[in-house]
Amino acid sequence: MNLTVKDMAALLNVSEKTIYRMINNDTIPCFRVSSQWRFDKNEITSWLEDNRSFSKKVKMDTQSIEDEEIISIAEFIQRGGIYYDIPTGSKQSVILNCLERIQARIYDMDTGKLLRLIMERESLCSTAVGHGIALPHPKTFETFSVDSYIAICHLQKPIPFEALDHEDVNTLFFIFPKSERRFLRIQSVLLRLLKDEDVLSIIKQVSPYDKTISILFNKEAEIFISPLK
Question: What pTM did the predictor assign?
Answer without folding.
Answer: 0.79
